[in-house]
Design brief:
The complex is a heterodimer of chains A (432) and B (174). Helix content of chain A is 32%, strand content 19%. Chain A is α/β, with parallel strands linked by helices and 432 residues long. With 174 residues, chain B is of the alpha/beta class. Chain B has a seven-stranded mixed beta sheet. In chain B, strand 5 and strand 6 form a beta hairpin. Classes of the chains: A alpha/beta (432), B alpha/beta (174).
């Protein structure tokens, strides 16, 4: 019987099968940030187990609150920094080099097809875009991952979502995944991997695939996965060129992780990409979506463009194409957080930062604190934010605040009018 | 092994997420104990007041998809330091459920019809739970009413509960 992508990765990484469907797998990478790792570090120290299984396979970053906003967050950063130093963890990204974990780690080439990755962060599913099994875990799983390089999972079934055709102008990966979550529901993929495929996915850049996989968790999914292809190889080529004699060889090696033609799935869902429209969330759950065009009465106080979902260069390009030569509404606070120093630099070189600033946006350093109401863009009671982030939970960006999730294009258009607005009225045409 | 007995708090809503269980503004804490005052701080639910209701209970019975959203283990920790060691629901988000057992706590699923029945019979009353882990039975009681409900947990989950969590288990096995 054929295997799907997750099954192939599990088969090549299994170390133990201690109970029924519990599989303990070997980890290729353990990612860490300053919010969920310090308690694991302190616990390891207390237990007399202050070791790491392989410092080269552990990557760490300070990204949720940076620069530190108070003594507590400074302490969290210090615990992570001191730990990285004493264990020789070379890939530790501190201030000046840091960015949003799910943007900076792929950018450094740390995720490869067939890899297994865990992190104490639910949006770790992002890295499945590379044909990897990447799952968010809690601090205890992270702690064991750091110490032993293994993690236990229920053997996951997969849902196959085939997105056929092509996306209309002005419809993006974010609209696609929000529509999918709307169909699945917030519990529709719990304990399952979502394998994305079809022409729309084949034609997506790695950045778009990351946006797609990033929100698999909002349907309860363990991981979102896209099959590795030449787009994956191209993205990784600067990091793998000494491992393979050609791109074709790399592709051939990675294709062992593509699903077999007779692979089985718990469910198969087909979506016609041509029928998708720009959407945004209402209410407090990410499966509550409506076409953006039906939400034009919703006034916003803040527009946030950034996060592990939509803070990458393509996202900033699209938003800038909408904002170019325009001013944001006088009552709107516009905030953009390029997700990594490299993205920030590219945006500077391309004149994108100037477009944002001329439009009236505040440009912050790379960080993801606003998304969960920790720093750099917290809402007050009763305020409304149009946001390119991933969760519209009640109070997520600040107690009593409301979040409407949408694409960077819609968020930029919304900043201009002050009301939730479809980007197509501002689009110059030809932008992807 | 932890205690899985106590007074039951009924939370009549699905999809209670970990931001509601412990908001991100408290994630700057680096000890579990520091989370104690903030359990369910952002849960807005008619008739529920965290300051009054949390101290009086140590068991949660709720609906579907409890613990969805963020992977923060601060959610089980905030429960743990308030002596809540067990949550009973129709089902759970994967990471939350794993985090509970990884801490030697329990997240037990019951059929929606059984949860309905528990709400109908016991919600709004002073309800107590006693957990029989040998026979896999919950005993609910309130105002002279009693109900015994069988449950199942996997071999792995039981091993974690008995080992006091995943660190202890993994350290002795891998």
């Amino acid at each position: 019987m054929g295997k799907n992508i997750a099954e192939k990765i599990f088969a090549s990484h299994r170390v133990d099968n201690p109970f029924g469907d519990i599989h303990v797998i070997r980890l290729d990478a353990v990612f860490c940030h300053e919010i969920t790792t310090p308690v694991a570090i302190n616990d390891l120290v207390e237990r007399g187990l202050d070791r790491v299984f392989d410092p080269a396979k552990i990557k760490a970053v300070i990204d949720h609150v940076t620069p530190a906003k108070d003594s507590k967050t400074a302490t969290q950063g210090k615990i992570l920094r001191d730990w990285a130093n004493r264990h020789g963890i070379k890939d530790f990204f501190d201030i000046g080099r840091n960015g949003v974990c799910h943007a900076i780690f792929p950018e450094k080439g740390f995720v490869r097809p067939g890899y297994t990755v865990i992190m104490g962060d639910s949006h770790t599913c992002t890295h499945g875009a590379f044909g990897a099994f990447a799952a968010g875990v809690g601090t205890t799983d992270l702690e064991v991952g750091i110490l032993k390089g293994v993690c236990a999972f229920h053997y996951p079934e997969s849902i196959k979502i085939e997105i056929r055709g092509s996306l209309p102008e002005g419809v993006f990966a974010k609209d696609t995944i929000l529509t999918i979550i709307g169909k699945l529901g917030v519990n529709g993929a719990t304990n399952k991997v979502i394998e994305f495929c079809g022409e729309v996915v084949d034609n997506m850049s790695m950045e778009e695939r990351m946006t797609l996989c990033n929100m698999a968790i909002e349907a309860g999914g363990t991981c979102g996965i896209c099959a590795p292809d030449m787009t994956t190889v191209e993205y990784l080529w600067p990091f793998i060129s000494d491992e393979f004699s050609s791109r074709e060889d790399a592709l051939k090696a990675y294709q062992q992780y593509c699903a077999d033609p007779d692979a089985t799935y718990a469910e198969t869902i087909t979506i016609n990409g041509d029928e998708l429209v720009p959407v945004a969330t209402f209410g407090f759950k990410p499966d509550q979506i409506k076409p953006v065009s039906e939400m034009s009465d919703t006034r916003v106080d803040q527009v946030y463009i950034g996060s592990c979902t939509n803070g990458r260069i393509e996202d900033l390009r699209v938003a800038a194409s909408v904002l170019k030569g325009k001013k944001i509404k006088d009552w709107v606070r516009g905030i953009v957080s390029p997700a990594s120093p490299a993205i920030y630099n590219n945006a500077l070189d391309e004149g994108i930062i100037k477009i944002f600033m001329d439009a009236g946006f505040c440009v912050t350093n790379p960080t993801c604190g606003a998304c969960l109401g920790m720093s750099n863009g917290v809402l007050a009671e009763g305020e409304v934010c149009a946001s390119t982030t991933n969760r519209n939970f009640n109070g997520r960006m600040g107690k009593g605040g409301t979040v409407h999730l949408m694409s960077p294009a819609s968020a930029a258009a919304t900043a201009i009018t002050g009301y939730i607005t479809n980007s197509d009225i501002y689009q110059q045409g030809g932008n992807s | 092994m932890k205690s899985f007995n106590g007074k039951v708090l009924f939370l009549d809503r699905s999809d209670i997420n970990t931001d509601e269980i412990i908001p991100a503004r408290y994630l700057t804490e680096i000890t579990k104990e520091a989370l104690k005052s903030y359990l369910l701080d952002d849960l807005s639910l008619e008739g529920f007041n965290p300051r009054e209701d949390v101290p009086k209970h140590t068991v949660i019975v709720t609906r579907a998809n409890f613990g969805c959203g963020s992977s923060r283990e601060h959610a089980p920790w905030a429960l743990e330091v308030n002596d809540f060691n067990i949550v009973i629901a129709e089902n759970f988000a994967r990471i939350f459920k794993q985090n509970m057992f990884n801490c030697g706590m329990m997240a037990v699923q019951l059929e929606p019809a059984v949860i309905d029945q528990l709400f109908a019979k016991f919600a709004g009353k002073q309800t107590s739970l006693t957990t029989d882990l040998e026979k896999n039975v919950f005993h609910f009681s309130a105002d002279g009413e009693q109900e015994s409900v069988p449950f199942t947990i996997s071999g792995f989950d039981r091993a974690l509960v008995e080992a006091g969590g995943w660190v202890g288990y993994a350290d002795s096995n891998y």
